[in-house]
Amino acid sequence: MALPAPLHGVIPPVCTPLDPHGEVDTASLTRLVQHLLDGGVHGLFALGSTSEVAYLTDAQRDIALETVRKAADGRVPVLAGVIDTTTPRVLDHARRAADLGADALVATAPFYTRTHPREIAAHFRHLRAAVDLPLVAYDIPVAVHSKLAPELVRELAEDGTLAGLKDSSGDDGALRRLLTALGGRTGRHRGPAPGFAVLTGSELTVDAALLAGADGVVPGLGNVDPAGYVRLYDAARAGHWERAAAEQERLVTLFSMVDAGPEAEMGRSSAALGSFKAALRLLGVTERGATAFPQRPLSETAVAEVARHLRAAGLLPAQRD
Asked: Where is the active site (predicted)?
């Protein structure tokens, strides 16, 4: 389907349910897409960090993307992560995603080797020229070890290389600088890049990002409570900032489920992704809560803590005494 310009709203990075053999559980993934659509989301981001894209083989990536696209059935845009270390490898993923019917591509800067901003710019321009799909830059320095400077993003937005930015940098100052350079809160789409979308990847500060002029959010927690993020977005767009803040605060409390996995026993990725997947299983959306190897699974105690957060957020019925 045609990508709206600008891309906007709530676009969750779709979790990838796994079966007992570590393969993509397509039945659970189909139910998850329906769960997200029922929540009112405006798009789907397959093969992102929350999708565990770095753990999936090329064949598993294909299965996950094709399943998400088929389940979406043209109702919302499907963005495909084409994340890999170098331009030739990313280009292979991009061509495959285009063949599988993705509506847009999401790519990081190259990583493993250090790259100069001019090399990063050339990377994005080469991808955009080679595959005729809108391209969204994914700024996640914790994973790729380079920050996309606001000046570089603006340059690539103005020349049409990039259709948008997913900002997971945690650098709110840089994000605000970019939004200001692109026209600020009231002039975002009358500025130098009118169709360019700015999406925050920080599920804890969505109300602030929208107030500053962002177009939407890509929330990992949105897998668990898509309707909550849609309510937040709708309230912000209507100018009901107190209502938006109240919904944001409820989601911040729910997000504490990512601390259920003890830091002394597992990585933060294992804990966060494990909590999202455990929540989806508890909600009856997916069959299992397994994460990809070698991430460690949550204990029964940790899963019980996730359930407690779901009940507190009103997503699971309260326990009877």
From this structure: 138 (proton donor/acceptor), 166 (schiff-base intermediate with substrate)
